[in-house]
UniProtKB/TrEMBL annotation, chain A:
GO terms for cellular component: plasma membrane. InterPro entries: AAA+_ATPase, ABC_transporter-like_ATP-bd, ABC_transporter-like_CS, ABC_transpr_LolD-like, P-loop_NTPase. Keywords: ATP-binding, Nucleotide-binding. GO terms for molecular function: ATP binding; ATP hydrolysis activity; transmembrane transporter activity. SUPFAM superfamilies: P-loop containing nucleoside triphosphate hydrolases (SSF52540). This is Putative ABC transport system ATP-binding protein. SMART domains: AAA. It comes from Mucilaginibacter gossypii.
UniProtKB/TrEMBL annotation, chain B:
GO terms for molecular function: transmembrane transporter activity. One of its GO terms (cellular component) is plasma membrane. It holds the Pfam family BPD_transp_2. The keyword Cell cycle does not apply. The chain crosses the membrane at residues 58-78, 85-105, 132-150, 180-200, 206-223, 235-259, 265-285. It comes from Mucilaginibacter gossypii. It is found in: Cell membrane. It is a multi-pass membrane protein. Keywords: Cell membrane, Membrane, Transmembrane, Transmembrane helix. This is Putative ABC transport system permease protein.
Amino acid sequence: MITITDVHKTFNKGKANQVNAVNGITLEIKDGEFLVIVGSNGSGKTTLLNLIAGSVSPDNGTISIDGNDVTNMPDYKRSRWIARVFQNPLSGTAPDLSILDNFRLASIRTKRKGLSVGVNDAFKKQVQEKVAGLGMGLQDKIDQPMGTLSGGQRQALTLLMSVMDSCKVLLLDEPTAALDPRSADVVMRTADTLIREFNLTAVFITHNLKDAFNYGTRIIQMGEGLIINDLSGTDKASLKQNDLFDWFA
Amino acid sequence: MDFYLTALLQGLCFSAIALGIYISMKIFNIPDITTDGSYTLGGVVTAVLLTNHQPTYVILPAVILAGAAAGALTGIIHTKLKINALLAGILVMTALYSVNLTILGRSNLPLINLPSLFTIVSVVSDLNQNTFWILAIFVIVITFLIGHLLKTDFGIAMRATGNSESMIRSLGVNTDRMKITGLALANALTALSGYLVAQFQGFADISMGIGIVIVGLGSVIIAETLINWFKLTSVWLSLVLVLAGAVIFQLVLAFTLSVGVDPKLLKIVTAGFVLVIVSLPRLSLLRSS
């Protein structure tokens, strides 16, 4: 699904604060794979995710999604395949817009935003049904501004929004980092359910080793902009939680 | 009474500018001060075409296009060259002064005895009342168009662009293009105010736009204060309050003049008035906390 070939990314090249964020990574993420990325701060995880999303373009190397070379394609065009959930709950939704309007935009992620009014009663009902599925009681609040909700509610809705339109790749950048343990749990379960239900290819960055252990079909560890551990399939399944802690020892 | 009627009419003329500032400042969150230039641009284009005996159906699109071009230019400088929006606006506004002077050919062009928007259609015999009805219809049509636009998918994407850029990019919107479009729309509206005012006052002047941005800002801030006060979220009500803001602003200025304040001090009174409205909500917050 996603092929990354010898990708390099350096920030502030030639200056005192030069950062070699990604140092020649080659990575093949298969269709339907749920990839977990762990690594210490500054290891290049988020840069790698931004390279896949297109908000950062590589210095050299190529990236392709679903057989299309997207190396120089801007992020808003890659949204044809990719939906994102950001670390900051504020980044994934528009706080002053109603929940309904947020969902409307998400439902036309891969389409043109034209001059017709798309928010009608049928759409409203459809959103209410989907939101009710979260079990958060938000279905009666869909006319409220998104900003009135808690971080956990917003992350859960962002996840739901990502599958409102056809979606192949889901990028999750520490989606639970800003949440309390209970909300974090709800968000992770929702993510896992959606990934299975819609057979999504997912890339999930986390610092929470318990989540890294519990979720995903493959795990990689990054360090200094390189992949230093890569386990998938039965190797991932037979991984012990303590082994993960040893990676960071 | 006539005095306040004139203020009301002026307020209606300025409601297009208020809607323009509402779009750039509140919807796109961009401080755009191309306004001073694009307002005058609207006025001079109107005046020159009127003196060349062009019909309204030529003048109106020309004014809209001229304003949109000025706004788009600010947008392109801001997004493509990554220049601060305030500076981009100042640059275009400054350049527009020369453009406006070239179009007008001199610093002032009277439009006496020329047919204007307010004389070609006669709803009632009284000139002031006729002007009122024409302005009212004009403003209602514009407000309806903008309100409808903001409800469409494109409009929701516009509102999200100023609200959460990372989100709307990940949902497939080219935010640069969206901002350019938004600033074009805002300045087209501003130019429409220039179109109305030039015909209302019967002349176009090269300096008619000096400090006009404060009229738009003041109107929007009055509206915003009311919106926060009543905790409104409706797009339609917000737009109506922006219109009300434009009228209230002119009425306050008229009141200031009628109580005998020296007209020389009008700009300082204007600035002071806007300062008061901006600081009022904050002052009352301080007291309650």
